Amino acid sequence: AFEKFTRPMMGRKELLKNTLRKAAHGWKLIVDHRLTEEEAKWLRLYIDEPAYTDLHWGMFIPAIEGQGTEEQKKKWLPLAQKMQIIGCYAQTELGHGSNVQGLETTATFDPKTDEFVVHSPTLTSSKWWPGGLGKVSTHALVYARLIVGGEFHGVHGFIVQLRSLDDHSPLPGITVGDIGMKFGNGAYNTMDNGVLRFDHVRIPRNQMLMRVTQVTKEGKIMQSNVPRQLIYGTMVYVRQTIVADASKALSRAVCIATRYSAVRRQFGSRDGGPETQVIDYKTQQSRLFPLLASAYAFRFVGEWLKWLYMDVKERLAANDFSTLPEAHACTAGLKSITTTATADGIEECRKLCGGHGYLVSSGLPELFAVYIPACTYEGDNVVLLLQVARFLVKTVSELGYKKPVGTTAYMGRVASLMQNNCAVQTAEGWLNPGAIVEAFESRAARMAVQCGKKLAKFENPEEGFAELSADLVEASIAHCQLIVVSKFIEKLKQDIPGKGVKQMLEVLCYVYALFLLHKHQGDFLATGYLTPEQASLANDQLRTLYSKVRPNAITLVDSFNYTDHYLGSILGRYDGNVYPKLYEAAWKDPLNDSDVVDGFHEFVQPILKQKLRTSKL
Amino acid sequence: MEGVDYLRDERSKAQFDVETMKVAWAGSPEAFLVCDRMAKLVANDPVFEKFSKPMLGRKELFKNTLRKTAHAWKLVNDLHLTEEEAKWLRHYIDEPSYTDLQWEMFVPALEGQGTEEQKKKWVPLAKTMQIIGTYAQTELGHGSNVQGLETTATFDRQSDEFVIHSPTLTSSKWWPGGLAKVTTHAIVYARLIIDGHFYGVHGFIVQLRSLEDHSPLPGITLGDIGMKFGHGTYNTMDNGVARFDRVRIPRDQMLMRVSQVTKEGKYMKSNVPRQLGYATMVSVRQTIVSDASKALSRAVCIATRYSAIRRQFGSRDGGPETQVLDYKTQQSRLFPLVASAFAFRFASDWLKLLYTDVKQRLEVNDFSTLPEVHACTAGFKSLTTAATAEGIEECRKLCGGHGYLISSGLPELFAFYVPACTYEGENVVMLLQVARFLVKTVSDLGNKQPVGTAAYLGRASLLVQKNCVVQTAEDWLNPIAILEAFEARAARMAVGCCQRLAEFKSPEEGFAELSSDLAEASLAHCQVIVVSTFIRRLQQDIPGRGVKQALEVLCNVYALFLLHKHQGDFLATGYLTPKQASLANDQLRTLYSKVRPNAIALVDSFNHTDHYLSSVLGRYDGNVYPKLYEAALKDPLNDSDIADGIHQYVQPILKQKLHSSKL
Predict the structure, then answer these.
(1) B28 lies in a domain?
(2) Which GO terms describe its biological process (chain B) (predicted)?
(3) Within a domain: B249
């Protein structure tokens, strides 16, 4: 039931229907086999097809759990968990994305009927993008401007029923539809991302999610003593998931490109022998192996984020908000750099497969198309880096009286980081975790301090921040890379069993760090921490490391344990039987149904017979 | 709401004359007129509508393209269009089709590699489209390495024929456009075998399909290789697979301009210089660079216009939010791409001149500039296509979430463009060819004066010594300072690579080991060429109010953006101090502010029609949101309120009756 090869050839309607079928089958398996929530989550992941259930389980239910009162949870959660209702998360609008405060949809309290009137006042206020909204969801969590007594009281979430539970038709006053095709053939076209408009739709007062803020039937606004910071806990959780997904997507692409690079041969034939495997070329290695290392790096930083989430949750439970700004900045930054690197990395893997990577059967075009929204959803990547930058600037300016914590603790040593320059003298000198961490810390600290100094020259800090934003983004990236590098190194300080496993991961850790160092050597040199000679030694060491990765390349990607079904790639087949299978797959294209193609007699034959003039086109 | 112009205020801010800039972009008043006329001819003809393309199934899609192609050929004939006009017509139809191969590969190959007799026979048939041809070189297992091809053409003296054969699965011809379903003929590249001896790879004209009923001829297996990246894009093309089972063709169907096989089976070389192929290569790569500038200009046009329409954050006192085009982060990603589009445009204009020069030299048997020309065009191809592919995707991201919609035009443009990075020479392979040339040039410096785009290397000893003298941000507005910086960096990187290569015992081993450093040195060299071409273009007379000034700003943006991006190179080679690099970056920010008021007018100068852009976000009138909403409702899923499949697969879940329902 979960076959996916034919997906790219389907029309849109067929494609959605097929996904609805798979989602139903998936749910049946979950119920029949009594799968746990954890198991069900993995089942959905391996079905590998965006569907309305992603939103139902990933956004709708958690939002009710997080933002609903006990009473609301008691009413709505059982309905949702049994799928008697299907919900989505309707926040973004046609004219409004990252800026939640800019939303236009209104929810106006009517004390006479004890109801909210949900309304779309303009075209740009139409809800736009929510997955599952277009055709499937019966309910939505709608974010709207709360208006009570003519006054605006912030943006809040409201549970709105969209469709009849009898015949699934849209309820009166509600216009709902699909927003059209998206990038890729299958990819997100299996999802009914939707548009939604309200014409004065009324809902009972108790359908506003009221855990934090309440509206009484008299129209009074009240804040409960639940800390508003609770929302940060959810944010850390969601971003942790995104980082974990980044490592999965990147590892898929790397697995395909690595296996095919070992199968594919080009140039270098000696005496008529076979050509050279492309994986033996240093140019191939220098593009592929850093991505392989990145997949592992993101995996480990994702694991650490899980720990961070638990930590934040415990602290919140004890009303300790001290680490929140740092946790927020750190997760925002990691979301941004891992998703950007993954999107770029998938496309790089496609190019590393040469011309055949352009075929949909390589799996890479679809993987790219399905992945890239991660760069814009849940916070646009550049907007997030600017949030990190604000935090960094603040941290630097407060250094005199506030000790930075967690991933910014190194800023506390800023004085020595500004002064001490790199001591590495040989290429081997770079195989030292201490040297590497210090290099990344110094670069990040110096860039942040430098930005702080330049900002101080502006009379208006906001103007300075806007003017220097591109530099601030670079400083944020430096800070975030430090986090990934140091979490990788910390991971390797733990006990890791198995023959050669730890040694292998050490090589990958060095590849990751030194690749970044080479790529951003401009930063390291401009801040004066490195000499050109030291940067060059790092690059020499990197080449040596590639040779150490080479014999392990295939087993490193086998370690991801991906099935051929999950990879969905002929080039990345476990058995390497690429060419016969590529040939076989070609024949399944609808154009190959007949020797003489549809349209030939009408539109080509008249040209060849020089009778175009008289033919009807 | 037709007739609105939400970008009017933006347009009125322009500090230069848009109409003259259009001519500067097009290259000449004549070129502008031809392009403008052909673009409008296509845009105003309903047959060439392309909005519905992504929703069509593969068969329907392909049939639709066949129809458009026939209609276009009819127009070419009815309107007596010149070859130049016909080329632009095909370009603006904006849909890969078998005629691309017919006119750009099959006919030129016949003309370039055929004897006079062969040309007399085949070219008229092709030019009247009585036969349709393609260019069958790549194989399932073989791409860039032509010498690795496996298909054989064995001479049979008895019948005076060649026997074309696919000996292995990996020898199947794979990728040629038009091959699967349309072409009647192909130029097949195969290993020439005479009496068991191999005589190199040559081209053979092979008929593939009956001219009566179009069925494949005996011994020939033909098919489509399946779906490619994107919805429409190259799925409108029948890229094909072909296998030959001992197919016989007459001896005179080997293209014999350079090498001949006599009926006795003697292999001979004519006195036509083998270097003739270089002229074609320069012409092909010139087209690729020109296409890069077009594709990138489309993407930046969409992203720039939408960035002026889209607003986000920064609302003061409930007023409108800030146009995203006003954010420095947006400008620092977008404006360098606008500048790159112009840079590539001028590079392609210059390549046209180079082509003429090469042709003239070849006629008088002057081959002295060929290695330099070869390296320079390979480098241009690699640099411009890689930057364009990345630039299109960057523009998509710059449009936020809506860039992910097909109706933004950017996903299709990206999927359509990316093959340029691999075809006609894979980009990294190209850079390594440049590297070989650089290494040779540097090592020959003592006894050979480098020419053309490598001439600066003649001053290498000076360039490795003298450091940058810039002291203020304003100093970076000096073309001489910029050029010297790029030359010094490139020369130092090339010399540095040579010094390290010398440490290896085997030069080949050293080249392999250091190949990624060599590729970086090549890129530095190619950037010198693009920057210096842009600067030289500005030394010419450019008419029109403010046109030259606006281009000067873009030229500086392009150069200083590269300098900042690659500051690691400039610092590592010791040419710049960190302070000087930082001044360049300061100047760059100032330059962005100078681009800002002209941004919309600059992309208007490309003169792209809304049809050609095919982007709701990039509409000329800026009427984005109503049109986006309108477009959404045309999706097939919106044919009915209740989607197909709801009753079967969703209702049973909601009604808790899944266990008893049949899936």
Answers:
(1) no
(2) fatty acid beta-oxidation using acyl-CoA oxidase; lipid homeostasis; long-chain fatty acid metabolic process
(3) yes
